[in-house]
Automatic annotation (TrEMBL):
Organism: Winslowiella iniecta
Protein name: Isopropylmalate dehydrogenase-like domain-containing protein
Gene3D superfamilies per UniProt: Isopropylmalate Dehydrogenase
Cofactor requirement: Mn(2+); Mg(2+)
Domain named Isopropylmalate dehydrogenase-like: residues: 28-83
InterPro entries the record matches: ICDH/IPMDH (IPR050501), IsoPropMal-DH-like_dom (IPR024084)
Any Pfam family matching the protein: Iso_dh
Keyword DNA-binding carried by entry: no
UniProt GO MF annotations: metal ion binding; oxidoreductase activity
Transmembrane segments: none
Keyword field: Manganese, Metal-binding, NAD, Oxidoreductase
Amino acid sequence: MLSALLVLWLSWSQRKPHCRRDNKPAATHPIASFWTAAQMLEHPGEAPAAQAVMQAVETVCQAGIKNPDMGGTATTQQVTDAVAFTILQKVTALESIG
């Protein structure tokens, strides 16, 4: 449940506008945000949830869904949505098992 809430928060945080000092929009790097989220989950002992987040990031990157700075063409929102969808699939599968 904690990981599902974290995914929802990350999805929302990627959608809100971010501005630099020059008032131009600044993109949040979604892979860095998910990596940070995984570390935040590990700290209180949520290692399985942290692993699910990192596995989702790896799955999405291996599928070629990456930001331009990582050699891809996807937007911040596309990467965020892909990782969030992958995590939610894992969470749903785990909840149906146990």
